[in-house]
């Protein structure tokens, strides 16, 4: 794998994580939506990825998957669970309104957990591709 490919892939991952982080802050600070328990866990896993992937992109470090995948994979699982929970029930088992739809994208109809699932999926794909190219 060429170093330029690694740098582009990691820069794209940084951009995805940064947009997801900014979006979550906009939902809570801009729109005044209160994050549920599952949203908080997803934020805890997403926010450090901005820094981890950003530093890795600057250093062209393809071995960043060792640090980033342990954040992205649980985030992917939580976002998938949250999306399924929201689609199938009106209550959350973690003592919060996790299944409530507080916002829906006007054009495509994605909810906040769906957007988180999309971001974590893209990040996981980029990190796995980086890992496989480095082998």
Automatic annotation (TrEMBL):
Compartments, record wording: Membrane
The answer, when asked if RNA-binding is one of the entry's keywords, is no
> Which SUPFAM superfamilies would you find in this protein's record?
DsbB-like
Q: Name one GO molecular function term.
A: protein-disulfide reductase activity
InterPro entries per UniProt? DiS_bond_form_DsbB/BdbC, Disulphide_bond_form_BdbC, DsbB-like_sf
Q: How does it sit in the membrane?
A: Multi-pass membrane protein
Region forming the signal peptide: none
| Pfam families linked | DsbB
- Keyword Oxidoreductase assigned: yes
Cellular component, GO, one term: membrane
Question: Which residues span the membrane?
Answer: 12-34, 40-58, 112-132
The processes (GO biological process) annotated in the record are: protein folding
Task: Provide the alphabetized UniProt keywords.
Answer: Chaperone, Disulfide bond, Electron transport, Membrane, Oxidoreductase, Redox-active center, Transmembrane, Transmembrane helix, Transport
Q: Which Gene3D superfamilies match?
A: DsbB-like
Name the protein family: Belongs to the DsbB family. BdbC subfamily.
Q: What is this protein called?
A: Disulfide bond formation protein B
Annotated organism of origin? Haloplanus rallus
